[in-house]
Amino acid sequence: MARSSKKGPFVDDHLAKKVDLAKSSSKREVIKTWSRRSMVTPDFVGLTIAVHDGRKFVSVFVTENMVGHKLGEFAPTRTFRLHSGQRKAGTAQPEK
Q1: How many CB atoms lie within 10 A of CB 13?
Q2: How distant, in Å, are the alpha carbons of 20, 32, 34, 42, 83 from that of 58?
Q3: 37-86 pLDDT, tens digit each
């Protein structure tokens, strides 16, 4: 279920503070966050945010096309290896 448009986008307070500090300073540092549930707002455009995927941080450079999506969408939590049928057939590379 989607969030009500009346409420507006959800961004964790601590992440919003970090983004404001990064925008006000002249240097562009990577912002580390565990908040995968936060929505990308227009304030984030041009920043690099390191989103935690449960094991490591994935660097995400925010562009205009990402506005309205959640940060977790850009840091996948699962790594696809290959299907078991491909292992049995002897092909190591997945079909494209």
Answers
A1: 9
A2: 21, 9, 11, 20, 25
A3: 999 999 999 999 999 999 999 999 999 999 999 999 999 999 888 888 77
pTM of the complete model: 0.79
Q: What are the two backbone dihedrals, phi and then psi, of residue 87, each rounded to the nearest 5 degrees?
A: -70, -40
The Cα 18–Cα 22 span in angstroms is: 6
Q: Are 96 and 76 spatial neighbours (Cβ–Cβ below 8 Å)?
A: no
Alpha carbon of residue 51 to chain centroid: 5
- Which residues sit opposite 31 in a β-bridge? 49
Where b means 16+ CB within 10 Å and e means fewer, 48-87 reads ebbbbbeeeeeebebeeebeeebbeebbeeeeeeeeeeee
Tell me which residue of 61, 36, 37, 39 sits closest to 49, measured CA to CA. Answer: 61
